[in-house]
């Protein structure tokens, strides 16, 4: 007796609904870095929906076995149609009642699973996303663009542009060699704070993808981007320069022994937009090529 009709809990869960449910059940949310919120809630929804689906499938299997037992019983064969009709009539209600009782437990477990995933994808020092989080976010954005672009075109809606900004600290090795790794770590933390100040929306993310290499993934409306230039390439470059101006040439004050040392952030930055006409690895390779060009001059941006 397979349940073909979807029960009420399957009707369009999203971030707002899951937050409302969490508040209703009095579940405490962990402290999640802003750049990881998008991934946290996406993971939470996936985990919760998977748990609910498994629960329903388990009930379906139980009811199927019960039906077979009823039909195979000689004693009950004369009332089997009535019993099965009763089960069919109340199955959806029973499922909803059961899931209501299980919601808090399932949702708590889902929150814990999502939190553990975020922890595994967070850089310990800077609290930015890790290299693993960076790669996963690019892949998710790539798949999202592939699905969304035909709809934007069909409805004549301005499409979204996703920019990948790779940031490399110039002369960081010299800072480490001069003042030591603890000083270098403090410097990296201040750079991370600066990067977090650049992002303005939940769809933007910051990452530390190597020792002195960082990344931003920024989503921008094409119409807004075109306000920076006459062509898409010119607009991307000018927009990138604006970002670069906010993260380069900042003077940080860092304690060193009994003194305060002033260090200026000098960064090379390469920017590439995700192109759905090409494989995702094409975007990464092109970005690497641009970094090489940017670092030749130092403290430059290439888009």
Keywords:
9 helices; 5-stranded mixed sheet; alpha+beta; 2 domains; 303 residues; Alpha-Beta Plaits; two-stranded antiparallel sheet
Helix-strand blueprint:
Elements: H1 15-25, H2 37-72, H3 80-120, H4 131-154, E1 160-169, H5 172-179, H6 181-198, E2 205-208, E3 213-221, H7 222-225, H8 232-247, E4 251-256, E5 259-264, E6 267-273, H9 280-297, E7 301-302
Parallel strand pairs: 6-7
Antiparallel strand pairs: 1-3, 1-6, 2-3, 4-5
Helix pairs in contact: 2-3, 5-6
Task: Provide structural commentary.
- This protein is an alpha+beta fold.
- The chain is built from 9 helices and 7 strands; from the N terminus they run ααααβααββααβββαβ.
- It has helices spanning 15-25, 37-72, 80-120, 131-154, 172-179, 181-198, 222-225, 232-247, 280-297, and strands at residues 160-169, 205-208, 213-221, 251-256, 259-264, 267-273, 301-302.
- The protein has a 5-stranded mixed β-sheet with strand order 2-3-1-6-7, with helices on both faces. It has a two-stranded antiparallel sheet with strand order 4-5.
- A hairpin with a 2-residue loop joins strand 4 (251-256) and strand 5 (259-264).
- The chain starts with 14 loop residues before the first helix and ends with a strand.
């Amino acid at each position: 007796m397979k349940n073909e009709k979807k029960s009420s809990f399957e009707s369009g869960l999203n971030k707002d609904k899951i937050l409302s449910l969490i508040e209703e059940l009095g579940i405490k949310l962990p402290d999640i870095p802003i750049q990881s919120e998008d991934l946290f809630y996406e993971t939470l929804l996936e985990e919760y929906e998977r748990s609910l689906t498994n629960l329903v499938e388990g009930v379906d299997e139980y009811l199927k076995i019960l039906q077979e037992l009823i039909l195979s019983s000689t004693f009950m064969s004369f009332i089997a149609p009535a019993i099965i009709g009763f089960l069919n009539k109340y199955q959806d209600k029973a499922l909803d009642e059961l899931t209501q009782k299980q919601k808090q437990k399932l949702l708590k477990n889902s929150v814990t699973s999502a939190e553990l995933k975020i922890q595994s994808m967070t850089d310990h020092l800077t609290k930015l996303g890790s290299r693993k989080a960076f790669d996963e976010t690019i892949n998710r954005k790539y798949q999202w663009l592939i699905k969304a672009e035909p709809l934007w075109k069909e409805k004549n809606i301005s499409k979204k542009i996703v920019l990948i900004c790779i940031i490399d600290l110039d002369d960081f090795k010299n800072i480490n060699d001069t003042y030591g790794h603890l000083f270098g770590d403090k410097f990296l933390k201040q750079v991370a704070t600066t990067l977090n100040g650049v992002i303005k929306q939940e769809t933007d993310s910051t990452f530390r993808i190597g020792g002195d290499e960082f990344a931003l993934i920024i989503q921008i409306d094409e119409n807004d981007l075109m306000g920076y230039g006459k062509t898409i390439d010119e607009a991307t470059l000018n927009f990138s320069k604006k970002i670069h101006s906010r993260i380069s040439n900042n003077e940080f004050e860092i304690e060193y022994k009994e003194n305060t040392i002033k260090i200026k952030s000098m960064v090379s930055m390469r920017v590439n937009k995700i192109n759905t006409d090409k494989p995702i690895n094409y975007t990464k390779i092109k970005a690497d090529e641009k970094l090489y060009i940017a670092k030749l001059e130092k403290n430059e941006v290439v888009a």
